[in-house]
Request: fold
Amino acid sequence: MITRETYFNLLSSYIDKPFIKIITGLRRSGKSVLLNLLRDELIRRGIDENNILLINFESFEFSEIDDAGKLHQYIKSKINNNRKYYILLDEIQEVSSWEKAINSFRVDFDTDIYIIGSNSRLLSSELATYLAGRYIEIPVYTLSFREYLQFRLEYAKVNEPDIYLYSKV
Reply:
């Protein structure tokens, strides 16, 4: 796994900042990995796991949460103390009118919100109007050449040990 340090450092620099963090990019570009690394970082910083709400809307476990009302109800049911909650939502575009729930979390609760979705369906002009000035977009691209070389080296260590040893000579 490539940790995408540049993106992770940028994302972690926004922890506890008063913006909704929206991570966009092509499928399979590492967005979900970044969200899981962020969760690990929050735990490393001493955040109680119960105060980190990670939902992947591609998981069957959350398939019934398909509109803003159900999302709001689910998150509200998980908030049970006065500490800050970290809401991490993967593939949010699967939830209709999700912007309404996100805006409500920002207003009604002490939250730090991170959202992942695809470029085309996530950052519509409606969203720009609805959350204007309240979000920061972090676009994630496919591997850079340096990351590709790092990936190849890691792959070779596991799958092609002879090539890996030869490349070290």
Notes: The longest strand covers residues 111-117. The chain is about 45% helix and 20% strand.
